[in-house]
Known about the structure:
The structure holds two protein chains of two kinds.
Chain A: H1 2-32, H2 48-79, H3 86-103, H4 118-123, H5 125-135, E1 139-141, E2 152-156, H6 164-175, E3 183-187, H7 197-203, E4 207-208, H8 211-219, E5 223-226, H9 231-234, H10 251-259, E6 263-269, E7 279-280, H11 282-288, E8 294-295, E9 315-318, H12 335-359
Helix pairs in contact in A: 1-2, 2-3, 5-6, 8-10, 10-12
Chain B: H1 2-10, E1 19-22, E2 34-37, H2 42-51, E3 56-59, H3 70-88, E4 97-103, H4 130-148, E5 153-159, H5 170-176, E6 179-183, E7 189-190, H6 195-207, E8 212-216, E9 222-223, H7 224-230, E10 234-239, H8 244-253, H9 260-268, H10 275-281, H11 289-302, H12 310-330
Parallel strand pairs in B: 1-2, 3-4, 4-5, 5-8, 6-10
Antiparallel strand pairs in B: 7-9
Amino acid sequence: MSELTSSEDQLRHQLGLLYTDVNAELRRRGLNGHRNGRRPARLRVPAPVPDVIEKAKAELPVLALQAVGELSLRLRQLTGRDVIDLATMMAIVQFLSRQVELANRGEAMEVDDFGFDQEWTESLLPIFRWVYRNYWRVETTGLEHVPAEGRALLVSNHAGVLPWDGSMIKTALLEEHPHPRHARALIAQFFFGLPYLSWFLRRTGQTVGHPDDSVRLLERDQLVLVFPEGVKGTGKPWRERYRLRRFGRGGYVQVALQAKAPIIPISVVGSEEIYPMLGDVGPVAKLIGFPYFPVTPLFPWLGLLGTVPLPSKWRIQFHRPIRTDLMGAEAADDQNLVMTVSDQVRDTIQQGLYDNLKLRRSVWF
Amino acid sequence: MGGELAHRLESRDDVAAVYGLDIEDPKVALDRTEFVHADTRHSLLTKLVRGLSVDTVVHCAVLTEGRAGARTVHETNVIGTMNLLAACSGADSPVRRVVVKSSVAVYGGEPYAPSYARESHEESAQTREFLANDLREMEQLVSDFQVRNGSTTVTLLRLGHRLGFQYPTPLGEYFLLSRVPTFHGFDPRLQLLHDDDAVEALYRAAAADHGGVFNVAGDGVLLLSQAIRLAGRRQLPVLLPFWRGLARAGLRATGYDLPASIADFLAYGCVVDIDLLEREFGWRPPHTTRETLLQFLGRGESEPLSTGPQEYELSQYLQRRRRLAAGSRRA
């Protein structure tokens, strides 16, 4: 045992030496040169900002390694045990260097017709995996109902102010499904007008909540994830948690019928407690053009820190598919059938919510 | 674009005569085309249409991607089209086919449109952007004309954004900047239309009956950042995402005038669905978005734009025209 510890200490020592070397090297280069030793011809316009960014990008892994290494040593000295172990350290460094690598892809970068960058999305998985496994400790059941290939429309309840539920459903499909698949979520059009967010949503495979888009994706045999409650679901107050809102106008059923895709209802439990919404300041929401402005126990009192979601215990259940693919495309015009199917989906999800709430020991465990 | 189209039409045997109408000299040397210097005044157009018994009218005098001001755009796009359509209407009108050029700018910004806008997509919110509003008004006039003149085939082509191979459009100039400023926080999907494909689409619409509204654009999309990288240029994400007017003013100060419609395009992008075009015309623009950009850049760098092979022919042609005009005035 002591041998093991000493060898790990040795490794840590070597790592320390390594980053002091690299650091010295970087400092030396910083004084009299550019990366790779060549200096590009200066253009008329000086551009200090991008150069700084480029440089930071290149140094990021080393700096991170230094910082994390330092932190781990300190914490070890302080507490006498490994708070950050070597594996975590390496994972963090790996993640950062992968980000740098992807940022420097240049022309090799590929996106699909909707702007989905699969490589980059998958590189973010470690973060979401950690949230999925360690933070919300998600328990997922019924994944066998999701086909290994071919189209399907995933329909889920929507809650929790910010759409974390979508990210967890996507993570579940990538992490636990025997054939990892990307689900493409449909997002309210409003968010695509926002800077940064529109960029992130498109890059990670989401698209506009428009029937045309969903049919197009389904026809390419993709998994499409919809939240028929929309912002009415995410913006509902705390006292109405786990009570489903109106499921739009059944448009999602029409889409499934048109594209001959089965509907797979999903119940997500836990998302309601991440931001208990106590109030909604309507005028502020109107002023900044948002659908709602939430007041939670932490937000807006703690500012950005208040946007950290609470660590509730999550359960996700995928239900048995509703075979809308067998009903024929002309069924999409049958308003009666559409509303019947929509009600059936809603009931399934609501029942699933009750079942999973019972299975959960408490909100936090 | 009209000149290029006339050039294509001249070579067809079943076209008896081609008449061109513009207030300026043509930019393409033409053989058979009778060129008329005129504006779109109604009285004049009526006389022309009936006097020459024109059976096909192709309306290209629609400003879609230049830097014209709001007033000029309104006068040209709405009033000009109104006059032209009025001249073509009526029971005694010889016109059997009308082709009108429009632009995908009618869809406005991407956030309120599906990822692939179809022709049937109705823009619910009025944009503040004058070009889109004027184009919508113009398209309304065209559809009114179609209702009143059922026997005439009306084709409305919503052309995608072009870069301008001969004369770069503002968007083309944008990709030729040495450092390309972009809006912070946006990386939209772009779709481009090759100049040749634009002319080809107008030609096909003029040569056969294809009534309806059609999107015309290249296959495939490019992210703005990808496009800039392909152009071998450096992206400067320095423009504020909000208050785009401010960003435009800043750019104007550095010597590049970015039209409002292109600013929207660079923030939200605009991608359209061209399945309807393919179904009706049996043709898709052969140049993809990527090919269009690469060809544009290849040309933009290697060959100075002002001394194309056309230039000499064109100057000869214009001289000949002037001599003829002087001769007829003397006679």
